[in-house]
Design a protein that fits this description.
heterodimer; A: alpha/beta; seven-stranded mixed sheet; 7 strands; 33% helix; B: alpha/beta; five-stranded parallel sheet; globular
Chain lengths: 197, 463
């Protein structure tokens, strides 16, 4: 995974709450067995509406998505994270994220910066009054800054450390493989296996 | 989460605990399907890693499969299914392919084989893995990176969840089902109210539910934002499991039951949050909006967005009514549907089909309404056919299909056309979930069947 320290990019205001992962990428785009190309499905239904924010050329270079509360609810599809990243997003700012989506983002290096709804509104107002304005997200200090705005965001210490170091989760766990093996020796004999029967 | 069921199961699976780090938790059962696994197997291949415990791993084909006889005609869907077959063969994972007698929706297959047992940790790259919590297992959905992690290590790094007790006491009125209970719970806590929590469903009304009804309740925990839903195992659980193909036998059975019997929250257990429902107050429930929290009793009317105090709820309701083409004040019972879908991992088990068939028996689906009945697994289909339910459905004018996820999500040929409206026993009413531009009302199997007969959202009491 790529290290994440700080990122500056054009902010995209998405004034919607409860953006579920079916909206981020509809099911018909989940059939690919690759890890790239999912940007085609990003907000596919909403992008058909020419007034949708991603169709506004002033936000075309956007890499910081600023969304309403409860972003990423619903299906566990990691394709939602791939779609956002394949499109060019590095950061999503929201006042509340769904658990599975946030976990998936942390595995891929997409930063989910949780800010207060009041601060999200401040950023929305800036991005709408000055389309194309840049937003800087600093993971070291956990702050979001943009013209005239400097606000904190939340991310748990462990995920922050992993992102800063760019560490791969599986590699980290395999350092403790001996613990897994000794746990396996203690498992009750009645636990089922999928073979046989 | 002191002394709760969730804590007991969690603690029994901690492989490693260190200050400032998530716990490393052992995973007893890893279920796979074709949609969320290909990139995980690719990751293993790139790193040269094997599947650590193939015998704790099981795969089935469900999301892409057509529910009419014949091969998959969509080449992209076919590639995804063929990729799963190749991956399972290469890594030694057991697979139930289309046509196999054990094929079906992953969350129907695990329980019916007796693989989902109390006190286990169960994961799958699918948010409705919460279904298996009905057995007192800690079961939750994961993303593809975590699928790869479990394949490689049979464990997951996790920060402990908080606990939420949802108590439903009393006796459910006639015609009120597990689906109505969980829709009412989601309407009350909202789609984010369960965030970070494992819900334990408790109380006399929950204890009185069958295993299949408990699965319906736990299945939709994720729609309240919760990571998992659980119900303490009891005699109902043990009776369901006994004799199933992968359930323990002989001395193992006795040892298992002894251990399973300890899996209940202590009387002095402390939950991080609690809510209470009186079962007698619950009624058949339907959704009117575009998230599962936007639901009301069937006897209510479409709400006025201005009646919501919260800004973002108001905006969300306005958008939802616009998408759903509904007018505030319209009685929900007057909403006409084009399609009725009975099936999915929420309501595609034999009891669901029996309930729908009992309402349809001897009647005809209303003119202009298409009704699809899709068993959750090939075994459920065979069982239903042995009972003659298929004939009840066909005689009523409904389509009797093969097992799969079907119209729950737009990944296979069963979809709503733009603008079509459904009453659906599935779990999500998101925009476009059942097909581009489709409009979904979530309902119980009883309401689905009554709606099919009347053509408007209805309960059996309206017939």
């Amino acid at each position: 995974m790529e290290q994440f320290t700080t990122h500056t990019g054009v902010g995209v205001p998405l004034r919607r709450s409860n953006v579920d992962t079916d909206q981020i990428i509809p099911a018909e785009y989940l059939k690919s067995v690759a890890r790239t190309g999912f940007e085609r499905g990003l907000f596919a239904a909403w992008r058909k509406d020419e007034t949708f924010v991603l169709n506004d050329p002033r936000y075309a270079a956007g890499s910081v998505l600023v969304a309403g509360p409860d972003f990423g609810t619903g299906s566990s599809r990691e394709h939602a994270v791939w779609a956002l990243m394949n499109y060019g997003f590095r950061v999503v700012i929201s006042s509340r994220f769904a658990d599975i989506f946030r976990g998936n983002s942390g595995k891929q290096g997409l930063l989910t910066a949780q800010a207060s709804q009041g601060d999200v509104e401040l950023i929305w107002d800036l991005l709408e009054s000055e389309p194309g304005a840049e937003v800087t997200v600093d993971l070291e200090s956990r702050t979001i800054s943009a013209k005239g705005i400097q606000v904190p965001f939340e991310l748990d210490d462990y995920t922050r450390w992993r992102l800063l170091e760019g560490l791969d989760d599986i590699g980290l766990t395999l350092r403790h493989e001996a613990d897994v093996t000794s746990f396996e020796a203690r498992r009750p004999a009645f636990k089922p296996v999928t073979t046989g029967a | 989460m002191a002394g709760t069921l969730a804590e007991k199961v969690w603690d029994a699976h901690v492989v490693r605990r260190a200050q400032g780090e998530p716990d490393l938790l052992y995973i007893d059962l890893h279920l796979l399907h074709e949609v969320t696994s290909p990139q995980a197997f690719d990751g293993l291949r790139l790193a040269g890693r094997p599947v650590r415990r193939p015998e704790l791993t099981l795969a089935t084909e469900d999301h892409n499969v057509p529910t009419t006889p014949g091969p998959i005609t969509d080449p992209v869907s076919r590639t995804q299914v063929e990729t799963l077959r190749r991956n399972c063969a290469e890594f030694g994972v057991r697979l139930f392919p289309m046509g196999d007698v054990d094929q079906g929706i992953v969350h129907v297959v695990g329980p019916q084989l007796g693989l989902s047992q109390p006190g286990m940790t169960i994961v799958c790259g699918d948010s409705h893995t919460s279904t298996h919590g009905a057995f007192g297992a800690l079961a939750f959905g994961i993303g593809t990176s975590e699928v790869e992690h479990v394949l490689a290590t049979q464990s997951l790094s996790l920060t402990p969840f908080r606990t939420l007790a949802v108590n439903v006491d009393g006796v459910l009125p006639a015609g009120v089902t597990a689906k109505d209970v969980v829709l009412a719970v989601i309407a009350k806590v909202g789609t984010a109210g369960g965030q970070g929590y494992v819900i334990e469903f408790r109380g006399t009304a929950i204890q009185a539910l069958s295993m299949e009804a408990r699965m319906t309740v736990c299945n939709m925990s994720i729609e309240a934002g919760a990571r998992a839903g659980m119900i303490a195992p009891d005699q109902t659980t043990f009776d369901y499991l006994r004799g199933r193909p992968h359930a323990p036998t002989g001395a193992d059975w006795d040892a298992a039951v002894a251990q399973w019997s300890t899996l209940r929250s202590e009387d002095d257990a402390v939950f991080d949050a609690q809510i209470h429902f009186n079962a007698a107050d619950l009624a058949p429930f339907v959704t009117w909006g575009t998230n599962p929290g936007q639901g009301l009793p069937l006897t209510a009317s479409v709400p006025d967005p201005d009646s919501f105090a919260d800004d973002s709820e108001r905006a969300s309701a306005r958008r939802a009514l616009d998408y759903m083409a509904l007018t505030p004040g319209t009685p929900l019972r007057e909403i006409r549907v084009d399609t009725v879908f009975v099936g999915s991992c929420t309501n595609g088990r034999i009891e669901d089909l029996r309930a729908a068939a009992a309402v349809l028996q001897g009647h005809q689906v209303a003119q202009g309404v298409r009704m699809l009945v899709v068993p959750g697994s090939a075994k459920v289909r065979l069982e239903a056919e042995a009972e003659g339910l298929d004939k009840v459905f066909s005689d009523a004018g409904a389509e009797w299909r093969l097992a799969g996820c079907s119209m729950c999500l737009g990944m296979n040929p069963d979809q709503l056309a733009p603008g079509e409206r459904s009453a659906s026993t599935s779990n999500r009413n998101f925009e476009g979930r059942q097909g581009k531009g489709g409009r979904t009302h979530l309902v119980s199997p009883l309401v689905a069947a009554a709606t099919a007969l009347r053509g408007t959202l209805s309960s059996p009491a309206d017939l």
